[in-house]
Amino acid sequence: MSDATHRAALAERAARAGGVVARESFREEMAVETKDGKNDLVTAADRDAQRQVIATIAQEFSGATLVCEEDARPLGVAEDVEVIKEVPETGDAWVVDPIDGTGNYVRGIRFWATSVGAVTDGEPVGVATYMPAEEDIYTAGSESVSLNDTPMQVSERTDPETFAVGLNGWWPVQGSRQYVALFESAVEGFGDVRRLGSMQGALALVAAGSLDAAFMPRTPHPWDSIVGVYLVRRAGGTATDIHGETWSNGSEGLVVSNGRAHDQVLDVVQRGLRLEA
């Protein structure tokens, strides 16, 4: 087994392990805290799931570098395991989102995910997005991309007016009217517009062909995007920034699609952003 294949398999195993921990507290009473805003939520389950992901990876990579959303690491894990917030440009690292869609999670909505990606020199080599409450797992490595071990690919629709599209990211309560034009453009340009509450979950749906496109205007965090973009690309789709340039970690905004009408999808997004200015 190659190193990349090994790391892809471990990404899946770690995502499953963390997701199982999160699922144990799902729809149970829990304390909900806030981070950077009143709708930026975190729970003990987020931290516990992340600790399990880290512990699972550390069993095989004691000196691992992990890029994690939460500030939590398990007791007893080797001190040389490094937990940071930015993806290193060189070397191996793991990108972890223990519960993507905490807002859904705390409301008892099943659409939330545990995502883990193995990256080398800033580029993913194996990823997994596990949806514990729905019992679905989306995985990709150098040799395969699958939903529940069945090969998957993006949709084949070509007409944006028939597209089901996901709106991703976070929207500020104060000043939120600036997004009205973007919503309006999307509603006018696509057949169906949905906001699902989990960015990694929505990106996985694009990879599986359930959604035809998804976008967000702001620069996403690495734990919200790297895994899902790799799934989309490995499934045959396209990922750019809002300007149409090839997406990479740190790009402004994110637009993914099945690639059949990406320019038209970009036009809809850009029209909304121009109206917003």
Shape: globular
Structural class: alpha/beta
> What's the mean pLDDT score?
93
The named CATH superfamily of the largest domain? Fructose-1,6-Bisphosphatase, subunit A, domain 1
Described by strand count, sense and barrel closure, the largest sheet is: 8 strands, mixed
Which CATH C-level class of the largest domain is it?
A: Alpha Beta
Task: Give the strand order, joined by hyphens, for the main sheet.
Answer: 4-3-5-6-7-8-9-10
Number of helices: 7
- The third-level CATH topology of the largest domain is Fructose-1,6-Bisphosphatase, Chain A, domain 1
What is Rg? 18 Å
The helix content, as a percent range, equals: 25-40%
Oligomer state of the chains in this structure: single chain
Strand content: 15-25%
